[in-house]
Fold this protein.
Amino acid sequence: MTVPVLEAKALTKDYRIGKQPIPVLRGIDLRIDAGEKLALLGTSGAGKSTLLHLLGLLDAPTSGMVLYDGERVDDRPVAERAALRHRQVGFVFQFYHLIPELTALQNVLLSRMMAVSFWRYWPQRKAAKAAAVAMLEKVGLGHRLHHRPAELSGGERQRVAIARALLAEPRVILADEPTGNLDSATAAGVVELMFSIQRERGLAFVLVTHDEQLARHCDRIVRLRDGQVVG
């Protein structure tokens, strides 16, 4: 059996209100292989976004392990986890998380700038800009490079977010309700774009959604309920 790109073993996550622990995840086992599209399906409060944050090293589990290529990574120092996250993972969120003062091109470039030190980025800045322009052209925004988020439609903002996620050439894309803020026609275009790029690059793709129809476009569906895998 091949080693999965990303794996969770007995993953738990508790939050606290005062001294009272509030369990959110209750022992999740999950593996994602290279090139696989996996949907995490469940109602609000099921633990989908929390699990995505743990898989993407944005947060640390209460217990259990997160592994990349068979190696445990959740217990590494903060700076090392951040560097690994920038190299391996691309995030696409429901609310885009674009910086309003920056243009589409600058928002995409920011992911490359954050992945390395200033001294490493500066000599490669022209190549990085060319790569960002090419990525925005790929997602259909070559004519909107210098527009700020307020000048873009919801679908265009999400395409900027996709371009930003892909610029560092990650191996895994983690998408948290990426179409939840879009109308159905725009959402269909965004989904088609994401899946097309996923197939082209052979990426592992984890999609958090509560949309059954969207989930059926994935290779596998994992259902969460009350912080546990139920199917």
